[in-house]
Amino acid sequence: MNNKRFTVRALAAAVILALVAGCTTNPYTGEEEMSKKGKGSLIGAGGGAIIGAIAGGRKAALIGAGIGAIAGLGVGHYMDRQEDKLRAQLQGSGVSVTRVGDNINLNMPGNVTFATDSADINADFYDVLTSVVLVLKEYEKTLIQVVGYTDNTGSVEYNQQLSERRAASVTRFLESQDIREVRIETYGFGVDNPIATNDTPEGRQLNRRVELTLVPLT
Fold it and tell me: Structural domain tally of the chain?
């Protein structure tokens, strides 16, 4: 976990000047305010897009495990169809769906996924995760990166552990629903990569989240 975290932090430092505040999909209304082409040119503000840069080794393992790669020009179409299915399944759930190039990022705010200071998934959120699983099973040619984050309340060490435990809870659920373990990478980044200010209750609520990033096998 630590080696992965430091590798991603190094990548984040290398690309931080390229990050833009262009994510205009409202996390709660699901309304799109940017075309897919526009979102395709966007570097996401969260860590999912950065992690995608180090997915090569896991992609090779997936292909070696018998999960075929997507043929060149078919990648965009494959991810378009998966994105459309996810948007339909998650409308009104509180989970946002953001396209970043050929990756798809699902942002699951902590206020709808977990109780405060807990890594136990809220009982009423299992149906939402089950909806995600249905799409993941249909579109299996993707690597799934599960990333936990926290706000900055409390110690850095405690938040790091909480983010790891929350990400692990989501991973365990995916695996319990027969999503193959080889497809999943799990990370916890604690207070890193905030998507809002930590100076307000509303901002901290947005920063307490788990993100799933779906990376196509190419």
Answer: 1
